[in-house]
Amino acid sequence: MKKQALRLAAAIGLALASASATAATGDSDVTRATLDNGLRVVIVRDTLAPVITTEMNYLAGSDEVPDGFPGTAHAVEHMMFRGSPGLSKDQLAAIAANMGGAFNADTTQSVTQYYFVAPSQDLDVALHVQSLRMRGVDMDAKEWDKERGAISQEVSRDLSSPDFKFYTQLLGQMFSGTPYAHTPLGTRDSFDKTTAAMLKNFHDTWYAPNNAILVIAGDVDPVATLAKVKQEFGDIARKTLPARPAFDFRPVTAKTVQLPTDAPYGSVYLGYRLPGLTAKDHATAMVLSGALGSQRAALAGMRFDGTALFGGFFDQSMPQAGVGMAVGIFPKGGNPQPVLAKMQSILAEAAAKGIDPALVEAAKRKAIAALEFKKNSVDGLANAWSSALAFEDAESPDAIKAAIEAVTPEAVNALARQTFDPAHAITAILTPESSGKPVEGKGFGGAESFASTPDKPVQLPAWAEQAFAKLEVPKSSLKPVSYTLPNGLRLIVQPETISDTVELFGSIKTNQDLQSAKGDEGVADVLEDLFPFGTEHLNRLQFQEALDAISAHVSTGYDFSLSVPSAHFAEGVKLLADNELHPALPAQAFPVVQQQTAGVLAGQLQSPDFLLQLGLGKALLPANDPQLRYPTPQNVMALTLDKVKQYYAQTFRPDLATIVIVGKVDPAQAKQVIEQAFGDWKAAGARPDTDYAAVPANQSGKLHVPDTSAVQDSVDMAQTIAVTYDDPARFAINLGNQVLGGGFYASRLTRDLREKHGLVYTVGVGLDTDKHRSTYKVSFGCDPDKVGAASGLVVQDLKQMQQQPVTDTELMQAKGILLRRIPLGESSFGGIGSQLLTLSQQGKPLDAMTIAGQHYLELTAPEVQKAFAKYVRPDGLVTAVKGPVPKN
């Protein structure tokens, strides 16, 4: 309950997802067409799994919105889920749920995307839905009134993030006078003034075939698919499009922003304007960002020399311009000025002296290798093509590859000189502040309720009803080969030929709470943060240089991974094993990591997130339960390097380790490589028990944790539940959870809390199972004055699951979601690796998903009702709220 925040490198920084991720695919796998009405179509065949992704990219986003209404495109995206002529919102929700529930959208500055990820058998349904929604959308004023409440909650959620608040100020300063001066999110004030008629006008103006690009990726017949696209979209009339807004960028004026944050650490950001996705030097900007963000570069070095807890460089690109962001992290109570000064010095040197050509070349190789890795996910491949065509105005991802190959160190240095001018830098310092201690809630939550019964069964259109008429367990595309090495290490290999890459996923079962001595809390965290300092044979820079030479990426520790071109598989495994089995654990690095970990903890123990997690744990678990252990700065500073090394020797055991390999590799070859690299690894002593013991049922309770940076409350309603990952009852609970929370609008909780009453933006329900103990949780975010109503509806819906069987329609829909998610879980290397790794660590057969599918297929509504009546306790929930004081 307290380890995650200590792994800084994986979690720090703004959520700046680059829109420039691309993938290369041979021309033989790609079918292109432009219909007579202007719709551009790209079909990319990918046989990784019997899964397809359809992405409809409308070339309109927040750039095209009316003045004073920044969220118009975002609001239209929301309303697209409330029905179209010939397809009601309930039918749309039921169709999406029956297809597995992977149906969503996103709005950016220049593009609004709508996508399905579904089994290949549902391609026709996905295309027909996209066609109906292009033709028209229902914009009923009453429906907009309901959706306005939900989208307002989304705004509140994002504005509760200090990083997002800074980002909005950054855009306003950096892109003043242009459409990029605001985010696509929108504002609550503007939504209050927005009408349904305005939204319909935006849709009817911009949602046209000649303003759209349809990308289809997956296991399809390209010829038949193109014929179906022409049938569905060919008769939609093209439209005359309005002029697009101009972008007259003014010089950026230096500015410093000071903000409080609820994070356990402080952040320093230096932001600069970069070329956009469509600029001729965008590839140069990509390489510049990659070189500055390298683990061998000076910004990352701040972490290793003790200047900062973390350092790096990120970028976000939009079509007309981009943002480059250097980041440095400092501990709560620490002085940000030395970190800022070091960052400024590093960027000034990059501008004056240029960037190491070796880092430039390494960044180029990694960027090009990343193109090949994009093939390892069906939806990732679709995203890559959408990005290239819709965002970057490129002919294909291969065009991006060519542009990267053409980048020179001289071009990178010229861009650095042009960019890193202190007179044009936006500086932000986010300083952690405590929000106060948690208090036991008295009088919030459950104060209101609304009469609600399941809606009448949805009558699907004939074309959809026929597609979903028959449920069956899908055939898995996986044929893993499993070995157990003499030292006890388990190796699982799933050969795939979709790309010339290999991905390795590994884990060692450990539990610091059960394996560390009293007073040594935090020893595992210090140990894991020492791994990046290299091996006994290669220091950290030499180790990273060796990885860069083969375009490989590794993560190390108890959970470890490797991504590497297949030609360098053996070399990559050798480097990974060297770091895992022979970490340097250098004496000079120990006090640096020790001080950094203690510094993070000093802030973490006062952070709202930690206090919520700890308070919820204390309410759910018995006093002195080992899961309630957590490290303090005093614990960490009392550790010695010898204790850390002893803990490493005690807990790094091959008989508790599993390695899963997915990619272009022969299983026998993979076994030989793993044996050579990991075969000498030996376990000492008796195999430890790393699973928590069972616990009794908790009592109900309420908890409020103040968070002064939030405008919205985050709510967890949780309880312990006597259903473990080996209990057959988990199938019935999982199936019932799909009725409650699966399929978006088609679920009871979303329908009641969002669609009917506009109380929340999202609501989720989950069963987190372990070997001996498990947790059942419902989570949502809402305004403080809506917590009572929303939590009351949650309790009501849970009781309804106990009091009467779910309807036949709901049961079939829930089964469809779970059955269709089986192939979706096999549609990426990451999904395959995670699934096989989890099954192995839980001691389950590797075809357990197929076995689970058979259980779901055979379950009845009375069996689901019985499981909820026996195991779920609606009146035994602990309601934990983080944010402003809830109001009834």
TrEMBL record:
Pfam families in UniProt: Peptidase_M16 (PF00675), Peptidase_M16_C (PF05193)
Top-level division of the source organism's lineage: Bacteria
Residue ranges occupied by any Peptidase M16 C-terminal domain in the UniProt entry: 195-366, 639-816
SUPFAM superfamilies with a match to the protein in the record: LuxS/MPP-like metallohydrolase
Signal peptide as annotated in the record: 1-23
Keywords (A to Z) from UniProt: Signal
Gene3D superfamilies in the cross-refs: Metalloenzyme, LuxS/M16 peptidase-like
Domain Peptidase M16 N-terminal: residue ranges: 41-183
Entry's family note: Belongs to the peptidase M16 family.
Protein known as: Insulinase family protein
Organism: Rhodanobacter hydrolyticus
